[in-house]
Amino acid sequence: MLDRFLARLEDPERPFLGPVIKFLTIWGVWLSNNPKMLMMSILLQLFETVFIVTEFIDLFYVKASLDLLLTNLKFSMQGAINMCKVWSFIAWQKDWRAVCDYVTRADIANRSSLDPKKKKNIEGFTKYCRIVIYTYGTFTFATGFVVIFQPGFKYLLSSTYRENVKAGREDYMQVISSWVPFNKHEMPGYFFACVIQGLGTFVAAGWITSYDVIALSIMIFIRAELEALKIDTVAIFDASESDAIDRIRDCHKRHIELIHYSELYNSCTSPILLLYTFICTVILCSTAYQITNLETSTMQQLMTVVYLMFGVAQLFLYSWHSNDVLYASMDLIRGPYESKWWTQSPSHQRNLFILVVQLSKTIIFTAGPFTNLTVATFINILKGAYSYYTLL
Question: With bands split at pLDDT 50, 70 and 90, how would you rate the model's confidence at 183?
Fold first, then answer.
């Protein structure tokens, strides 16, 4: 049953990005040409945007309680970055579509190659990409469901909490701290507030999944294309002289195209990742402080740990794959040196040197103009979050 479901997500016209594009379409981020579907997508985005604004409004009502303030802060700031992700994707949809079209063209070219190494390479990265996006999507929605049903779990598992609520000594626990234009501390207002907050959390999980899986999938494909280019450069002179010249030209052209679309992709994600590195520091710091200083219930601590793990996993995946692309692009220059260049004439060797100069240009993704997105950056962010935590 699961295999049939996953098979339905595949798209023969987009072998690498098929499931990713469907995720984006389902959550209204990949805008449709159908007017009705387009209107539904915009309404969905507006609903979630208004919901995130109500989270920030509620900060003024919970500022007296440090626990409630930190809880609101970690969710509202995560909502803010999600809002920036989705609306930036919609605003720069033309650029995102251009990058996705390039990925599809290059992917189909690799799959139609007669070289078994290239076929094995792209199939291996496709399988890896599916593992990453499905695992990430499952983890994201699992975290979302934990957040949505957290009040119910607490009510069922904590007798002290039930007694306090019945006696009026404690308010009902909310799904997410957000403002509503009615009394959310008593029934039936609490029920309707939970429905709104639950829907907002569910849509947020869809937003996070759809944006992050397309961003990570493109990173993984760029890594796969770098490996395919290296395979081709190693085999440049395993043919006649005329074919060798064509292969050098093809590799040169493909690398220029790869650099161009990598820079276009980076221009779309870099501002978002800069904002995310700042916000992630605050989220990790506040969550860690809650676990060690404010949460007294073991169940509450466990659920907060799940949210903390989700925040760390998000940032780690971006940093890891960006780091992988950087080192693969640096390693690409070894391809021409591993070819049979010493058997060629001086003119062929000069042509190969021109290709080497082109391949020496590395690909690096950034978080704004300030820092490169690498594993070292990820570690520095964790160190910064820990420093703020110790200060609190």
Answer: confident
15 upstream amide cis, omega within 30 of 0: no
- Classified as helix, coil or strand, 372 is strand
**Measuring CA to CA, how many Å separate 33 from each of 28, 41, 47, 327?**
12, 11, 21, 39
- The Cα 11–Cα 50 span in angstroms is 34
**pTM score, whole prediction:** 0.90
Once rounded to an integer, what is the mean pLDDT over residues 123-144?
90
What DSSP letter does each residue of 187-207 carry, written as one string? Answer: TTHHHHHHHHHHHHHHHHHHH
Measured in Å, how far apart are the chain's first and last C-alpha atoms?
49
* Residue 302, CA distances (Å) to 275, 288, 296, 355 in order: 27, 12, 11, 54
Task: Give the tens place of pLDDT for each residue, 208-267.
Answer: 889 999 999 999 999 999 999 999 898 888 777 678 888 888 999 999 999 999 999 999
164: amino acid identity, one letter: N
